[in-house]
Design brief:
Strand content: 5-15%
Helix content: 55-70%
Number of domains: 1
CATH architecture: Up-down Bundle
Number of strands: 5
CATH superfamily: Rhomboid-like
Number of helices: 8
Low-confidence stretches: 190-195, 228-232
Distance between the termini: 36 Å
Strand order of the largest sheet: 1-4-5
């Protein structure tokens, strides 16, 4: 069940340069994927074997290669639909997290939670060789951070299956979204296959834990009692 967010209720004048930069870089990487696969006549899976972090390679190749492949993995996507879906979540939830952290720290946070997802995938891959591609872990980390900072902010979302939109608190939206993934996504955990979800699980927990630590030194924003009013 697709539950697509549109925006966070309430306006802000903050300019999310880092969020826009990550979005643009992901789009450029996807264009590169299309050009390389088309010009060389190779499948995108073959491309991933050379340019992404492969779980069974950890401990077998130099650490620098793991880091480079891990970063590159966060900007490569299997399909245009996956790219658009992840970038939609980044654009909706990223700016509020970036505003709290600042531009440079947000980029560092994005990479950290992305590697949190990678780590979970490596630890629970069961020895299988899986090429990790996509920003799902990093996006899940942003959701974890957003949930910690703004659990009561209201989200405008649309469910195509029901043909209507909703305006609901962030904590409820995020848990509904995660629950829908567990219940309805192909190959989801209830089918006995957790492998596609370790990246998201690891990223989400990493984001939540990082903000638990960060807010020990910098107080989380106070809840806005009037989210529908313009913010100065």
């Amino acid at each position: 069940m697709a539950i697509r967010p549109f925006r966070i209720v309430g306006r802000s004048q903050f300019r999310p340069y880092a969020t826009f930069g990550i979005l643009s870089l992901s789009l450029l990487f996807f264009i590169w994927e299309v050009v390389i696969t088309a010009s060389n006549g190779v499948s995108i899976e073959q491309l991933y074997d050379h340019y992404t972090l492969v779980t069974c390679h950890v401990g077998q190749v130099p650490l620098t290669e793991i880091i480079v492949d891990g970063i590159r993995s966060l900007f490569l996507h299997l399909s245009f639909l996956e790219l658009i879906t992840n970038m939609l979540f980044l654009w909706v939830f990223g700016p509020a997290v970036e505003q709290f952290l600042g531009h440079k720290r947000f980029v560092a946070f994005y990479l950290a939670v992305g590697f949190g997802g990678h780590l979970a995938s490596v630890l629970f891959s069961g020895g299988d060789c899986a090429a990790l591609a996509g920003s799902s872990g990093a996006i899940a980390g942003i959701l974890g951070g957003f949930l910690f900072l703004y659990p009561l902010r209201r989200i405008e979302a649309f469910i195509p299956m029901l043909g209507r939109g909703f305006n609901i608190p962030a904590f409820l939206y995020i848990f509904i979204f995660i629950g829908a993934a567990f219940l309805m996504d192909d190959g989801g955990p209830l089918s006995g296959n957790l492998a596609p979800f370790w990246d998201e699980i690891g990223g989400f927990l990493a984001g939540f834990i990082i903000f638990f630590v960060v807010t020990m030194f910098k107080a989380a924003p106070k809840a806005n009692p009037f989210p529908t009013l313009d913010e100065d």
